[in-house]
């Protein structure tokens, strides 16, 4: 998947961060999509979705086996902390 020249973000990063479910769902159907791709700042789509509180996208990534390996992260605590 192509990366933005300035940030290293892919279409998957943008969809995860913006919460654009239609685009995100389409990208999940692409067999070669890298769900763990990183920006130049080492951010994954999961990290970006988590930062914006997009719980549905987080859930779909986790269903696919994506784990957040950022230091000190605990997805369950982070997601539950975002919910009212």
Can you tell me about this structure?
By secondary structure, this protein is mainly α. It contains 5 helices and no strands. Helix 1 packs antiparallel against helix 2 and helix 1 packs parallel to helix 3. The longest helix is centred in the C-terminal third of the chain and has 9 residues, at 55-63. The chain is globular, with a radius of gyration of 12 Å. The termini are far apart.
Order of helices and strands: HHHHH
Q: Give the total of domains.
A: 1
Q: From the coordinates shown, what is the CATH architecture?
A: Alpha Horseshoe
Q: For the report, how would you describe the main beta sheet?
A: none
CATH topology: Serine Threonine Protein Phosphatase 5, Tetratricopeptide repeat
Strand content: under 5%
The radius of gyration computed from the alpha-carbon positions, rounded to a whole number of angstroms, is 12 Å
- Tally of contiguous helical segments: 5
Number of strands: 0
N-to-C span: 35 Å
Q: What is the helix fraction of residues, given as a range?
A: 40-55%
- What name goes with the CATH superfamily? Ankyrin repeat-containing domain
Unreliable sequence segments: 75-81
CATH class category: Mainly Alpha
Shape: globular
Category by helix and strand content: mainly alpha
Q: Averaged pLDDT, please?
A: 88
